[in-house]
Amino acid sequence: MTVGGIGEVASIVILTISSAALKSGFGLGLFQTIMALLAFLLFMFLLFRSMQLLFWWFPKVAIALMPHNDNKEQDIRLSMGIFFLLIGAMLFLHLELAFGAFLAGIFIPTFFEHKHELPEKLASFGFGFLIPIFFIHIGSSFDLNALWINGLIREAVIITVVMILMRLIASLVFIKELGLIDTVLLDFLILCL
Fold first, then answer.
1. Is it the case that residue 1 has pLDDT exceeding 70?
2. What does pTM read for this prediction?
3. Contact 48, 110 (CB under 8 A)
4. Exposed, middle or buried, 34 (CB in 10 Å: 0-12/13-18/19+)?
């Protein structure tokens, strides 16, 4: 979880800054995007800390939001609400949408540990509904002529290599425990997941 979290956050931050640099160049637009990203990260850090304090002092709040015996699917509705709220914040701030989805994915298991069956319920909803919609949208809106843009494939390969290297660097956290070879294998295992 630690390696995946560090790798995801680092690669999403780099993608956000790269996207802003490509859209607005190295000027005021890039500076505004970086400041928005830093302000949002600070806000999310403070929100996570305050939620930890709230649920530590008042553990019944977590049970009230996601009860054990949930016959109204309140857990899925709250999860989807958090997901769409964070995606909306990313759209408003002109940041990477994947970052909002990643934070929503961290939020639920962090604060609602008592809902052990929730990941299975969300997986069936996601794989059965959200992921097919995503692939249908991408497939129907993709312009095949874009494959012939000069340098596109080279840049895609560079982005892929950089993302692999970011995860490799993140997996170096465990180099003392696992050794170099097992750390590299851990990196490739995380890539396959």
1. no
2. 0.63
3. yes
4. middle
